[in-house]
Amino acid sequence: MPATVIVGAQWGDEGKGKIVDLLARDSDLVCRYNGGPNAGHTIVVGGETFKLKHIPSGILQGKECVIGAGCVVDPQVLIEELDDLESRGISTELVRLSGNAHLVMPWHQAIDRGSERRLGRLKIGTTRRGIGPTYADKAYRLGIRIQDLLDEKILRQKIEVALPEKNVWLERVYGAERVEPEGLVERYEGYAERLRPMIADTSLLVDRALTDGKRVLFDGAHGTLLDLDHGTYPFVTSSPTVAGGAAVGTGIGPTRIDRVIGVAKAYVTRVGEGPFPTEIEGADQERLRELGGEFGTVTGRERRCGWLDLVALRYAVRLNGMTSLALTKLDVLSAFSELPVCVRYRLRDGTETEDFPAHQSDFHHCEPVYETLPGWEQPLDSLTDVSELPTAARGYVELIEQRLGVEVCLIGTGRERERVLERVA
Ligand code: GDP
Ligand code: IMO
Ligand code: MG
Fold this sequence. Notes:
Blueprint: E1 3-8, H1 16-24, E2 29-32, E3 41-45, E4 48-52, E5 64-67, E6 72-73, H2 75-87, E7 95-98, E8 102-103, H3 106-119, H4 131-140, H5 152-173, H6 184-195, E9 199-200, H7 202-211, E10 216-219, H8 244-250, E11 259-265, E12 268-270, H9 283-292, E13 304-306, H10 310-320, E14 324-328, E15 338-346, E16 352-353, H11 360-365, E17 367-374, H12 391-404, E18 407-412, E19 420-422
Parallel strand pairs: 1-10, 1-11, 2-5, 2-10, 5-7, 6-8, 7-9, 11-14, 14-18
Antiparallel strand pairs: 3-4, 12-13, 15-16, 15-17, 18-19
């Protein structure tokens, strides 16, 4: 299968990085198509932990890695990441950067912080990395792109157009400090020096790779429910996170994509604000967080934890045209004797539905209806084959497959690269 999208099926942090790293072994090219330094993928290899923000998770397998046009790039963060990888013996020579990707500028971060402060209790709970303001300027056509770094005159002019307007917002709307223009062009020219050799026509590169029969992986950032159009708006990120975004964000036609693997945790987490029907109340929330190490890769924030939500997951199957599912962190559930799984939502009028509500107020006020499954209460980390799964664990996986109508192709049983059971239908 030459073109495979890996997409988060929940609210992010499903373990996409680990799955992409695993599948990259048998791929030639790995592409990021959306998001920026708000993404954080943790991959554990040989006892060493790698935290990637911009660079596709295929880098650890030595594969050619593309940062596509749909991404937003904070050059300082990208360069730090490149340096960190090089210092740890990972070559970054094969990283390719689209000239059409947009730059996160200092005012975007300042506006993100100012906007969250101004919203107060209505805040979104963003990563404060400037993502929303950067995508907003892209749509407003005031953005600065990677290719603008290549021409000092264009870069200076674009900064001179954007900055005065941004400073009015910063000072008057957000009561925040101005961003001073001095030294800004020079700073970004410094970044340009470092990034110049990586800038490429990545749409053409991916197209050629596919035409040559190479195996291409698309490394999704965030999760389906954080999608700008189809997620739990406004508590979403500012890019298309769904699988369709892979075509748009890399610049290939949708007919080139062969399969879509959704990645879901065996439970659910969410960082930031917004509705979360299966969020656990009481001690199990803390227990699950500690057992799963549920603290943000980017911000270190506590992730909110909840039981598996099959209504939301079925929505993700639909939105992504998911062909199979990778189920991660099944090992974390070993500690629980009973496992509630949400199979329906009860709406305010008392009716029950298996379909994700189309209206935000229905979703905000729905109550989860649970079926409770027995736990297996034994560790899974020493398993090497899916046939060794305890009966109750197999039952948990089969319930998911049956209710979603999608096969579970991979099961995560630990943090390390090799802790995955492959399941053949
Ligand atoms: P991503 O953003 O989707 O790539 O996910 P993150 O890396 O932000 O968060 C997933 C966390 O779970 C990371 O710390 C991974 O090392 C860890 N992880 C991934 N798969 C598994 C698994 O099957 N079991 C356990 N225990 N941890 C896992
Ligand atoms: P990965 O790729 C989890 C969430 C933020 C916030 C909302 C908007 O690691 O799965 P933003 O800074 O994007 O404007 O924040 O989206 N969010 C994520 N949550 N994992 C992510 O990425 C996320 N990227 C954004 O917490 O609620
Ligand atoms: Mg993450």
